[in-house]
Amino acid sequence: MTFLPHTARGRNARRLVHQLALAIGAAGCGIAAAQTQVGQVSLVIGEAHVIRADGQRDVLRRGAGIGVGDRIQTAGNGHVHVRFVDNGVVSVRPESMLEVQAYRYDARDPAASEVRLKLDHGASRSISGAATAVDKSRFRLNTPIAAIGVRGTDFVVYADPDGVRATVAQGAIVVGPAQSPGCRAQALGPCGGDDARILSANMGRMVAELAPGDSHPRLIPLAEAVVVTASAAKPGDAHRNRPEGDAPAYGANDRTAADLLNLAKVHIPLDLNRRPELTSELVWGRWGIGTDEFNQITAPVSLAALGRHYTGIGDSEAGLYLYRADPKASGPLFPDSLNASVDFRLTRASASFEAGGLKEAASVGGEFTIDFARRSFATALLLSSASGGSTELRAGGDIGSNGIFAVRDATQTVAGAVATDGTEAGYLFVRNVDNGVFKGQTLWGVSPGR
After folding, report:
1. Fold classification of 282-445 (topology level)
2. What CATH number does domain 40-264 carry, 1.10.357.10, 1.10.10.10, 2.40.30.10, 2.60.120.1440?
3. Contact 45, 61 (CB under 8 A)
4. E-state strands within 112-237
5. For residue range 364-405, what is the model confidence (pLDDT) as tens digits?
6. Distance (Å, rounded) from C-alpha 243 to C-alpha 281?
C-alpha cells in the first residue's frame, strides 16, 4: 500500500459524474419496483440464508431485500445486519433464527406503525427506528418464552429453549413472560402486566433473565448471565424460587455473557458501510468505474474533490484517496479553542479480510480520541470476519501541524487526517494476522448525529 497524491483528469471526472447519475436513477427504479420490501441486508459475514414466506430458501447476500414473513437464518460463522424502512436496525448473530412477523411504517401516520419480530433462537441486537418514535407500544420482540417491548432502545437478546436473557445498551425494555394470561403472539408491546420487568441502560451492566416456568424475569449482573446446558439442569429447575439478585445456581458455559458483552459494549451504528455525506469536511474518493461492495463510504474523486484537496493519505492500488475541505481562514490549521481531549464516534467504515484469492466483508467497531492540546491521537478497532476471526488494532501517536498522522509497525498501519475545524477525522488501516490481513477506511465525527 502506498500513500501518493492523485491528479484527476477532467474527461474521466465527467464520465464518473455521468455514471453516478445513471446509477442513482437505476437505484430509484429498483426501489420503486420493490414495494413489499421492508428492509435490506447491509452486511453478511459467513453463511446465512433467508427462508421466504412461501418456503423458498435463498442464500443471503448484501443488498438482498427482506419482507414480512421472511426468516433470517445464520450458520455458526454467519452474521447478518438488516436496515429497515424506518432506519431501525437488527443484527442477527451466529446460529440464530429471526423472523420478521410484521413491519409497517407510514411517516404520515407514525402512530399506526407496527413492528413485530421473533427471535426463535440465538442472539440478536435491535436498534429501534422511526416506527416506534411516536408510540413505543407499537413494537414487540417475541421469543419462545418472553415478550419484549421497548422504550426507545438499543438492546440485545439471547434465546434458547432453556431461557431468555436481554441487556440494554441505550434506553429501556420491558420483559414479560409470553405464557402469561392474555398474552398473544400477534399483539404488540410486552406481556405479563405486573409480572413484567423494566430493564434500563441507567441500571448499569444488568441482564433480564427469564426461564421456562418463571412467573417474572429476574435482574442479575451481566457477568453472571450464562447458558444452561442440558447436562447442567432440568430446564427451569435452577431458576425457580431463587431470590431476586441471587447468582445462577447451575453450572454452565459462559457463552451468553460473552455474546451479550460483545454485542453491547460498542455503541455504534450497525450500518457503517454506507454512502458518504458530500457536505462533510472529509470524504473518501475513489478513482475507477462502478462501486465496490466493500467500500460504499467512497464517492467518485470528481465529487470528493469539490471544495476539498487531497490530503496525501490514500491507497493507490485500490484507487482510494482522502480529501479534506479547504481551510476557511489563513493562519494555524486548528483554532486556539481546540485545546482539549475529544472522543470521536465512528460514523462510517468499510472493512474487508483478505487471504490469497479470498476477500470477504469484515465488521468493525472502535474508539478514537484526539488530545488537541498535545496534538496526539489514540485509537482501537475491533475487527472480525468469518474466515479471519477476531482481532484488535491499537495505535497512537502524534498529529502533525498539517493535521496528518501516520503510524506503522510490523503488523499494522494507521494513516489519516483531521478536519480543519476539528469536528471530523478519517484514517485507513491495515492489520496483519496469521492467516491474512484486515484493511479498510474509517470516518469519525464528534457528535452522534454526524
Report:
1. Porin (2.40.160)
2. 2.60.120.1440
3. no
4. 114-127, 139-142, 146-150, 154-160, 163-170, 172-177, 197-200, 206-210, 218-221
5. 878 899 988 888 999 988 888 878 887 889 899 999 989 999
6. 55
